[in-house]
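Lab notebook, bench 4. Continuing the backlog of folding jobs that were queued last week. Each job is logged with the same field layout so the records can be merged later without manual cleanup. Today's entry covers Phosphate ABC transporter substrate-binding protein, a 290-residue chain. Filled in by technician R.K.

JOB TYPE: sequence-to-structure
TARGET: Phosphate ABC transporter substrate-binding protein
LENGTH: 290
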Amino acid sequence: MKNSLLLMISLFVLLVSCKKKSSRVIDSPQQGEITMEVDESFASVSEALTNRYMALYPSTKINLKIKKEDLAFLDLLEGKARVIVMSRDLSEGEKRAYKKVTSLDWLPAKFAADAVVFIVPKDSPRENISVEEIKKILNNSQKDIIFDGTNSSNLNFVAQKINSTPDKLQFSIINGNKNLVEQLNKFPDKIGAIGFNTLSRPYDPEAELLRNSVKVLKVVENNKSYEPRVENLKDMSYPFTRVLYFLTNERYFGLGNGFIRFSCTQLGQIVVSKEGLQPYHLFKREVQMR
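JOB STATUS: finished
OUTPUT FIELD FOLLOWS
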């Protein structure tokens, strides 16, 4: 799977390099239309940010498309998307491909701390799972951990965390984070792996319903147990904490870079916080007393 992805990237680099022309600037941070692709695990926070930005700048339109993380990266290289959200680090080969196609250095615009969380049916006796146990299960032919799909951010990140690659792991699939949560009770002996943002939204009725339908496991590492809570994302003590970042192929300060800058400002970070995630940029609040 990983080899085929690298082959596709190489082909895209060749095609795009042959066609590369100077692009005419047709948008700005205050007006224009672009496409942004994100993995379903980051869909909620991405939608909240784009909606807020478009409300501030009514002459802009950001078309949000849901795409598996690896496929979104390929679309960025091919020019089908202006901005994407990533959670895993790019390989050295991917960074070279990105620079060759975009003429830009790999400078991730970090904006939020998220996580991969492990869930079981509500009546399961299990309360926690260790990092070592996760490694063992993912190398077991019984495929007891269920992910939301191949090429997904959750699978990619967990594989990277345990120093492996998705093609070397044994796992089951139920497509979609929400779908996985809703169907998990049919598989009492399985463990689901989903994005934290699927459950984290504190004021969203759908997220509350999903939270109440499953049990979220604590993760044990070095004999310490950690819950996937915002305070444990802030200091990254929860073992499967990940940092979300934007990538763009935009070589000027247009709508893509304008949106990215907004997301990393105080207003954008407030949106991140309301989504139940940890803002990456912390702004000191000062109150003057007279």
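OBSERVATION: Residues 96 and 251 are 16 Å apart (CA to CA).
SIGNED: R.K.
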